Amino acid sequence: MPAKLSVNLNAIAMLRNRRDLPWPSVTGLGRIALAAGAHGLTVHPRPDQRHIRFADLPEIRALIDDEFPAAEFNIEGYPSGDFLALVAAAQPEQVTLVPDDPEQPTSDHGWDFVANRDMLKAIVTRLKKSGARISLFSDPDAPEEQIAAAKATGTDRIELYTGPYGSCHDDSGRAAKELEKLGKTADAALAAGLAVNAGHDLTVANLPALAKKIRGLAEVSIGHGLTADALEYGMAGTVGRFLKACGW
């Protein structure tokens, strides 16, 4: 089965937040994305609410529950007490834990699973009691001992950070090298019994090669590139383009 597509709404929220106005509508564009075939919606609520606002979460939850019950809500973030409270209230189908500092503009590295194994194991155990699937953000070139430590946390999946691969949009040789790293890490994760997600700077142009390299790719979460394309093709048309790039 091709990788499922989760549309990250943070870039839409950031555009909305430039004015004290309700547009563009985060839930409205989420609705269009799901109606066009997206399999889920992703948000990353940061402490300063510069992108998604905390008040958006119940509205997105209601959108999925009321209109698209087969879709999934994925909430990602650093597992602070405030974040865990938001997750408990929103009851997402998937929680993706990232090692972000609150001041980071975007996620740009994966967990050190060895150093953080005990902390992550406690958080994963707590979150799984709600029935949520758990994914942990991983470097694209995580060695086998890191993957083994990720497995030991009890997580269901890792999400490969594809930023270095996405940054090679003008250098096919370097992109091929980054793709090899991603494939090797994905193979190790799959061999360990972990499912594999991917996200960051993925586009219609670079998705097919990634999907071909990682045969067991379960899900891609895409925000910036998808939102940029939506300015040209519209949200519905863009979702269709990305689904095709995933192999649907």
Structural notes for this entry:
It is a single chain. The chain is of the alpha/beta class. The chain has one domain: TIM Barrel. It contains eleven helices and eight strands. It has helices at residues 10-16, 26-35, 56-67, 81-90, 117-128, 144-152, 163-166, 172-191, 207-213, 224-233, 235-246, and strands spanning 4-8, 40-43, 72-77, 94-97, 133-138, 157-161, 195-199, 217-222. It has an eight-stranded parallel β-barrel, surrounded by six helices. β7, α9 (207-213) and β8 (217-222) form a beta-alpha-beta unit. α2 packs parallel to α3 (56-67) and α10 (224-233) crosses α11. It starts with a strand and ends with a helix. The mean pLDDT is 96.
Widest sheet: strand order? 1-2-3-4-5-6-7-8
Which fold does the CATH topology refer to?
A: TIM Barrel
Q: If you compute it from the alpha carbons, what radius of gyration comes out, rounded to the nearest whole angstrom?
A: 17 Å
User: Which quaternary structure do these chains form?
Assistant: single chain
